[in-house]
Amino acid sequence: MQADREGGWLAAFYFLYFCALGAFMPYWGPWLHAQGQSPLAIGILTAAVQFSKVLAPNLWGWLAHFWGSRRIVPWAALITAAGFLALGLAHGNFSALLLITLTFSFFWAATLPLVDATTMDWAQRCGAAYGRIRLWGSLGFIALSLGMGGLLAHWGMTAFLPGIAIFLVAAWGASRYLPYGTLPDANAPRPRLSGTLRQVSLWFFLLAGLLEQASHGAYYAFYSIYAEQHGLGSAAIGMLWGFAVLCEVAFFWWGDRLIRRLGVSLVFTGAFVLTALRWGVIAWWPGLVWIILVQSLHAASYAAFHLAAVHWVSGRFPGALRARGMALYASVVYGLGGGLGALGAGWTWAHWGGQNTFAAASALALFGGVFLIQALRPAPTLEKEAD
């Protein structure tokens, strides 16, 4: 059946893309350290990856509006893989590493928002669930965040670049068969983005999402260190990370059904409240039992938030505008929000300590909820404008 085949290619792309990401995130810093980079240099190179998500998705979303995602995603995936391999040619030179990192990050940031838009279009056409396709990305992340450790233990850091590039090349292969929409007609009038951008609720939504994702900066940068300070060993910490992503997978499996039953607004609101609760419990009750329990809230702070956001954005950016809407969401919420959150968490950790850092993250998520309330107010029906 064609729909099953198309869904299989989408699931394969997510799995392979997040395999590469799951191998990259935990070991990028150690690989840079093995290349002789200082802590400051590692911070700059890590921030370069994060902040590339601010500009790049918007540019690629704009180009997809005219060229179609079919002409962009496969090339971007292939250049990303080549960029990873090119990092080995820098031989530890910081300037070369920075230039190559900016290049591969720029193309890597192109793929996921455009594929998300493609998946939502396909899901609506086929009556399928976005979450049940997207969960394969989470499974890929688990597989390689654990598996890459064993690979590096056997082969050393020399396996880092080719190990990731293999999955990126495979993702390129899968991207060639994704169910993209029809190519834009150069002579047809195109819907404008300006009407949507004038809506105040959109900017409340983006600000709320930015704050919610910024609150994760403490978790991604310092959770493992914080857990170690409270008596957990590395094996236990690894299991806690894996448990959190398994809870994320479970929500992606059932989340679309839950959104249909409860509505986007209620799921969104619950995600923000539970995110604040998660960071608050970690701050004030960091014992093992509570930490295990609140790790299950990753299903809310990431999976429920992202799934509700994708549905919300898809409703505000219909048809030909969807790729640009997803790109705007990715750049502001994950690019800018993630980058500012990481920087802010570093500052608060250095000046306020671990407990107050997670307390601040909890307050940040609650503050984001204030803007979310404004964003979820009913909006007037959008009228498509022609150029």
UniProtKB/TrEMBL annotation:
A GO cellular-component term linked to this record: plasma membrane
Major location (coarse): membrane
Source organism: Acidithiobacillus ferrooxidans
One Pfam family this sequence matches: MFS_1_like
Cellular compartment(s): Cell inner membrane
Bilayer-crossing regions: 7-28, 40-60, 72-90, 96-115, 135-153, 159-179, 200-222, 234-255, 262-282, 288-314, 326-350, 356-376
Domain Major facilitator superfamily associated: 9-359
Membrane topology annotation: Multi-pass membrane protein
GO terms of molecular function: lactose binding; lactose:proton symporter activity
Signal peptide annotation: none
Keyword Transmembrane helix: yes
Record keywords, A-Z: Cell inner membrane, Cell membrane, Membrane, Transmembrane, Transmembrane helix, Transport
Keyword Cell wall biogenesis/degradation attributed: no
Protein name: MFS transporter
